[in-house]
Design goal:
This protein is mainly alpha-helical. The protein has helices spanning 21-35, 55-68, 83-95, 106-118, 185-195, 208-221, 251-256, 261-270, 283-289, 304-317, 320-333, 341-354, 361-367, 369-372, 381-385, 389-402, 409-423, 427-439, 447-454, 456-468; strands at residues 8-11, 40-45, 77-78, 99-102, 143-146, 153-158, 162-167, 175-177, 200-204, 227-231, 234-235, 300-301.
Amino acid sequence: MTQTPEVVTRFAPSPTGYLHIGGARTALFNWLYARGRGGKFLLRIEDTDRARSTPEATEAILKGLAWLGLDHDGEVISQFDRAPRHAEVARGLLDTGKAYKCFSTQEEIEGFREAARAGGKSTLFQSPWRDAAPATHPDAPYVIRLKTPQDGETVITDAVQGTVTIRNDQLDDMILLRSDGTPVYMLAVVVDDHDMGVTHVIRGDDHLNNAARQMGIYTAMGWPLPVYAHIPLIHGPDGKKLSKRHGALGADEYQKMGYPAAGMRNYLARLGWSHGDDEFFTDAQAKEWFDLDGIGRSPARFDFKKLENLCGQHIAIEEDAALLQEIEAYLAAAERTPLSETQRDGLARGMYCLKERAKSFPELLEKAEFVLTSRPISPDEKAAKALDAVSRGILAALTPQLQNASWTRDDLEAALNRFCEEQGTKFGKLAAPLRAALAGRAVTPSVFDMMLVLGRDESLARLGEAGAAA
């Protein structure tokens, strides 16, 4: 019985900035595919562009992945550190006659292209050194080029895009090693993917044309090809490529806006991939369901309303302790004031009535203002209108009647309803002043929830202060 090889995927960002939301989705797809099959998800930093790669950008990418909960296996691989291995492969291809030394200068190459343009011919450079005898080689700088087949076709069998055919006469003899001995990106990617045992290359479809050229290296080395899956890019709501004009681009910005990581994972998974009509799902379901044939070929459109809707559903089902931990991480990321111990305890007590219908952490914290604030309560403009002299007088009369109430929802409801009957009013009329007195806000959780979370002493103290100002 043949054993199925272990699935190995990778995410390979360039550390030139933050973790782009498109890159985050690519990482997620690779993570889901590997984790759902008991495979490995590897991380490689493609830091060969030394002018643009920075340690700060690498750190930003690692933080973005950590926030999204996309854990990787093994050490982080630096592509730059592996340059000697890349050069070794290029020189090996040279030794076997599958690559050659090209001594053409930039001026000669440009001259060739100008002549081709003038003659209406292809400007694809054809090096005169491809079949030159070593005895004719000058003592001059050279690059190493791959000998690409000059006839026939290269066929990319892509798990998303289907069969893509490119004529070999449309491909040039790609440079593998520059004249200064440094490897090019296209070579480095192939060598790294092979050495890391990558079985599935899941990446943006802007790399589709690269696949044909990279396959030439695999073939020349006699290495097995990975499964390719080139996924469409993400567009904005207007159908144009996602850019800064559409809003946040970095994963870190979404954390700072207060979206939960689970909601982000759910939304990004649905952005270009589907499983029937399922919109909301857990990580466990996503790992079980995710497959490459569910990825569409058309660009997905980013929709903030759908993101917020899913985030709200994930906040509602999240365990209170985990939610509290993530809220504290959000406050740190957004550089907001951290919770005091008292506020943390209050938030933990009130989480049951705060997480319903909150689509983000700022929304949840706004609802939680009643337990985060302290006396004296300063009502906002809308709440202040509910605390006129009449309302304050009613609160002053109510407070003593609550002194001996058993502090349960049923008894509080009974006590307040009894008071309303005595006052000849309805509870709806009393609710607004109670909200203003307890929270200083017009929009809050239910009055009974606030009183239960605050407790007897604090609730009576707040009502007493509001009534005393009558």
